[in-house]
Write a structure and sequence with these properties.
The protein is mostly beta strands. It has one domain: Sandwich (Jelly Rolls), CATH 2.60.120. Helices cover about 5% and strands about 55% of the residues. Strands 1, 6, 8, 9, 10, 11, 12 and 16 form an eight-stranded antiparallel β-sheet that branches. Strands 2-3-17-7-13-14-15 form a seven-stranded antiparallel β-sheet. A hairpin with a 2-residue loop joins strand 8 and strand 9.
Length: about 190
């Protein structure tokens, strides 16, 4: 599945300000205050992310690629998996404390968050991959053509109906535009390591 196919067959969880497919890239502009979070530490629920998603079956994987050229606090982009408003995951890059952070938020009723700084990824092509096998979602990421590194292993019920795709959010500002350069659906990874 390509970006063009995802645009034709997918659905937005929340429509972005704009989404333009130009020369094999998808440029998505996020609305100010868009975000995905549920309760933990902050006490609020935000369910206004701009995720373009399609069915994500057990035994498959999705990859989302984008250019890391955003710099404002909490700007974020990557991949999004959604079973319901209380069961979802986002993984990718989020700007926090002045640095791009590679991480994931897993939500089973309430959200958690894990991050690691990747300052040397700025200006480069980031690819985030989610692989679904049994009761596990394995998230890996890389920059350019480097090897994938493990980001997260998370539980999702094996019989859960999950949609997956790309996303972006701009919790603190207007004007964030993310350039997505690729979307692929492939077979799931055969092993964790």
């Amino acid at each position: 599945m390509s970006l063009e196919h995802l645009m034709r067959t997918g659905r937005w969880t929340t429509a972005p300000v704009s989404a333009d497919l130009v020369s094999d890239t998808l440029r998505v502009t996020a609305a100010e205050s868009s975000d995905a979070w549920r309760t933990t530490s902050y006490g609020f629920v935000h369910d206004s992310e701009h995720a373009l998603i399609a069915p994500f079956a057990v035994g498959s994987a999705i990859e989302v690629s984008f250019i890391l050229d955003f710099t404002q606090q909490f700007d974020q982009a990557g991949l999004f998996l959604r079973s319901s408003d209380r069961e979802w995951m986002k993984a990718g890059i989020e700007i926090s404390d002045g640095l791009p952070q590679l991480g994931a938020v897993v939500t089973h009723g309430v959200s958690d968050w894990s991050v690691a700084p990747v300052a040397d990824w700025v200006g480069r092509a980031v690819t985030v991959r989610a692989s679904r096998t049994g009761d596990a979602i394995t998230v890996r990421a890389r920059v350019d053509d480097d090897n994938f590194r493990l980001v997260r292993l998370a539980y999702f019920a094996p019989d859960a109906s999950i949609d997956g795709g790309l996303f972006c959010c701009a919790p603190t500002r207007a004007g964030l535009t993310v350039t997505f350069s690729d979307f692929r659906q492939t077979a799931a990874d055969e092993s964790l390591h």
